[in-house]
Amino acid sequence: LGGDIREPHTARHHALLALHVSDDRFWDRLEEVWRGYADAMLRESELNDASSEYGPDDFDRVLLRSQPLELPVNAVLSLKGRWELASLSSELVRHLAKATQLFDDFVDAPNDLAAGNYTWMVRRLGGRDGEGPLRRSMVEGCDQVFAEAADELDRAVLVGADLGLIELPIWVGARKAAMTQASQRLYQTLFDK
After folding, report:
1. Counting beta carbons within 10 angstroms of the beta carbon of residue 72, is it exposed (0 to 12), middle (13 to 18) or buried (19 or more)?
2. Is the model's pLDDT at 6 over the cut of 60?
3. Does pLDDT of 188 surpass 90?
4. Is residue 16 pLDDT above 80, yes or no?
5. Which of 48, 49, 145, 160 is the most exposed place for a label (fewest CB within 10 A)?
6. Can you give the pLDDT at residue 49?
7. What span, in angstroms and rounded, lies between the C-alpha atoms of 91 and 38?
8. What pLDDT is recorded for position 172?
9. Could you report the per-residue pLDDT of 107-134, keeping only the tens digit for each?
10. Contacts of 192 (CB under 8 A, 6+ apart)
11. Residue 1's pLDDT is what?
12. Can you spell out the DSSP letters for 13-70?
């Protein structure tokens, strides 16, 4: 989108928030989150080139594009005088985003490779060496990637408990079940090729 569309959209949201949220800590965090988002988006576009180095730290940096998801929670925390919980909101988003991205990038790795998108997962699975090595690594590494995603979900549950999110374990259980079903389908697809 061009600046002519984004700027009024952003200004309108800032104006609406300003009617209700006056805490400078919220506004400082909002600016920090949007700077991190912009940096993450630029970094991701730089990293998609097959010749660039893209490791786990870069993956975590790119995940900052998800941090704007914390802003509505932070606004409520500010309004309720509970800003001390804002760091937990940020941590929750990081764990949920990482779990989701690990899982989705793993499942999408063959399509990403075919499209020339050299994501961290494509590289991690040997995609720079071609489709065959990528698929072999997917079979060998499926359980490990899903365990990493499940670990991030478990961490989110712990943080969610500190935030009073009593329904989060139910959602996480459903997400893990969906990941298990998807991994079983994925195994079948990989073995069929």
Report:
1. exposed
2. no
3. no
4. no
5. 49
6. 79
7. 19
8. 97
9. 999 999 999 999 999 999 999 999 999 9
10. none
11. 38
12. HHHHHHTT---HHHHHHHHHHHHHHHHHHHHHHHHTSTTS---HHHHHHHGGGGGGGG
What pTM, to 2 d.p., does this model score?
A: 0.85
- Which residues fall within 8 angstroms of residue 191, CB to CB, at 6 or more apart? 139
d(C-alpha 52, C-alpha 108), whole Å:
20
pLDDT at 4 over 50: no
> Could you tell me the end-to-end alpha-carbon distance of the chain, in angstroms, rounded to an integer?
39
- Residue 57: which residues within 8 A CB-CB, separation 6 or more? none
- Tell me, rounded to whole angstroms, the distance of Cα 33 from its chain centroid: 14
In the numeric block, which tokens belong to residue 39?
Answer: 């940096």
Residue type, 15: A
CA dihedral over 105, 107, 112, 118, signed as positive or negative: positive
Listed residue (168, 169, 170, 119) closest to 145, CA to CA: 119
Q: Measured on CA atoms in the order 137, 141, 145, 146, is the torsion positive or negative?
A: positive
Taking alpha carbons only, the member of 36, 148, 134 closest to residue 98 is 148
Q: Which two tokens stand for residue 182?
A: 């998807």
Residue 121: Cβ within 10 Å count = 27
Which residue type, as a one-letter code, is found at position 49?
D
Residue for token pair 């506004």: 27
> Residues 21-47: what's their mean pLDDT?
88
C-alpha to C-alpha distance for 92 and 74, rounded to whole angstroms: 12
